[in-house]
Amino acid sequence: MSPESSANERPPARPPAQPAADPATHPTHPSPDGSRGRAHFQAQLRELEEHALGGLDLIVEQLDRVLEALEHQDVELAQMVIADDDRVDGRYLEVHQGILSLLALQAPVAGDLRLVAALLHTIKHIERMGDQCVNIAKMIPLSGHEPPVHGELLEALAKMGAYARSEVVQCKAAFAGRDIGLAEDLVRQDREINRLNREIFRLAIEIGDDPDTREWAMHMTLVARALERVGDNAVDIGEQVAFVVTGLFREFSDSSRPPGAPAGA
Amino acid sequence: MPNLQQTVSPVTEAPPSNDSPAVVTKPGLSVRLEQLRAFYGDAEQVKGIDLEFRANEVTAIIGPSGCGKSTMIRCINRMHEEIPGARAEGRVLLDDTDVYGSGVDVVAVRRAIGMVFQKPNPFPTMSVYDNVAAGLRLSAQRGGDMHAKVEAALRGAGLWSEVEDRLNEPGAGLSGGQQQRLCIARSLAVGPEVILMDEPCSALDPVATLKIEELIDELKSRVTIVIVTHNMQQAARVADRTAFMLDGKLVEVGPTQEIFTKPSDPRTEEYVTGKFG
Amino acid sequence: MSTQAPTGDLMARFGVSAARRRKDRIARGAILAATIVALIPLVLIVYYLLSKGLGAWSSSFFTTDPTGNTFFKSESIGGIKSAILGTVEMVALASAISVPVGVGVAVWLVEYGKSSWFAHTVRFFVDVLTGVPSIVFGLFIYIVLIVGTGSSFAGYKGSLALSLLMLPVVIRSAEVILLLIPAGLRESALALGAPRWKVIFSIVLPTALPGMVTGMLLAVARAAGETAPLLFTAASTKATSFNLSGFMNSLPVQIYGDVTSPTTAVVNRAWGAALTLVVMILLLNLLARLISRRSRLA
User: Fold this and answer.
1) DSSP code, position C15
2) Percent of chain A's residues with pLDDT above 70
3) Cβ pairs bridging A and B (under 8 Å)
4) ipTM above 0.95, yes or no
5) pTM higher than the cut 0.80
6) How far lies C268's CA from each of C46, C77, C295, in Å?
């Protein structure tokens, strides 16, 4: 019997023979228990994200400590904060290396690619936040051992610190939860920080004639500025959240778009 | 507009000049599928597809094994019906002419829509020259300067410099990548407006694959190209637009950049990120 | 082969046991014995052919016709020229009939009929025909063309019988070769915009040619050696004839006639003719092999 006679029993398998799956580019078939393909890559991506976002926990720690050092004029605590910035920088390098590795070896596309790009930006912002904490810590010994205390100014600084801390915590939650609403809300808090920054500046100008007090007030404006930068970085991380979800990048503080307007049109 | 009612379609050529070989300079045409269905006996493999392939662009078709992408492109040049028991329904419009229309000559359709297959298959009894000339002889285009046409086709396929001094050697003696380019030259010689490629690089090594991808990029100024590929990286590299098929249906089509950075359909996202295959 | 006992853990797994070696030797011995037994008749045939036939060979053997004289020792008995030429003529005509028809049927079966019920039926009957005894073909032509029309024996009628004999062989071997041609070849020719008949004539057949020639030569070899069909159709004659509508001599018939003769010289001539026939078929086989070696498919 000729080989072609079997063709009538079933539709001939005419599509050309499929080449063997190339694991680097061709997705693997789902395993029998239904789990998804590229499990190893997905795990690596999750790990990378956790590691990067974990940097925000470090920042919260740093912020708490530096704000406490500021309140109590604790120079030793300030030194610890400065030393511990190495941990933040180290994390930046690790995440950066992880990103390069994933890009080179796994060729992520679509949502995965956007996530990797966002992580690259985010870890940079985290590193900046760390630097700002160091800047604050550096101000503390300069204020002398018995600094003049100006209640209103200190109160404003404490509030700024609280907002900054809250923004850092919230941007982490927004990223982890891919929550655009939460991310956009950061702008509201950031406006408060900006307002307080201006307030502190005003207070510093009007602080009086005593040179020691004036010097201290100058340092405090620098502290305020550092806190304001921390807030800006948190908002930037929020923008990355929107990019991961929608694939469009827009600045939150862009006043041409009212908050809550749909991204892109 | 190609005349599909006759068996011989006249070929227009630019006169040969010194700086460029005689090339067949017909521009590509667009192909539009309207509710295309394809059957093997009673089994429906392609289940109603509406898709456009724009003129002079490269469109890639991606999708998991068995989704019907090869079947679909074989309907475009009416090769699907060569299989016993296979048939197609719907319309395939080349420019504005339905290739499945009544009175249309299948042979003329295939001269306007060429095809390159997965496994390079130069005719084994013929030399390199004769392989390319076979394209002309089989499609009854004997007139004119055969040698110039063969050279033009080989140049168009990026093969001339490698074979110009071995035109009389057997075609099967070339390397895999060269054989595939020979097959492309053979198709080009016929002067089609569209070239369909069914996983043209699956059987080739990476260097040969890259050469063919470069060639595709050059060719698209002359013909419309539709390429079925298993290799998503390849689709990402060569295609202007990418279409994703699943279970015989079209899920999504769009600019390649979008499909690979921001696909609209979650199934597309899952497929390109490798969550199923 | 090492006769050392394997040592160590891994070697214990890799070593060949004595029992297995024994079985191996027994099996090999048995197969060798069977081969020798099968070769014995072959060797004997060759030996007899050579020893009895070579003696009859001479230049006159090939250049003179049989004289018909089998009795008188003073006259020559002649050679087998007419028989050789007759065989060549009749087989040539048979080939000219069966090869185009057979290739045509094979092409139809592979390219058009494919799996249709009609193609299945055709293949079935072709298979049946390969098994039909050659005498039946001779009888068929005899009944139809000689008794039926009331006409006489003729060379071309012998060719017809031979062509019927060759037909199934040609069809079968051509079909096998055509099926070996990769579908991709036909596909790419079709995709270039060639009508089906052109694909067959310009691509498929030229590619299949070397393989098909092999098959055809084997069919020819078979036809050249058949006696029975010719007995009823071409009869025999002594003189060299180029007229296919008359009686015609052939090697198998000549041998058949000579071998029962009481005259030793005539019997020797029969052996010489047998050797000639075998040598001719041998040469055809060698030719087939040479051609198939150059073929890319077979």
Assistant:
1) S
2) 79
3) 97
4) no
5) no
6) 15, 11, 41
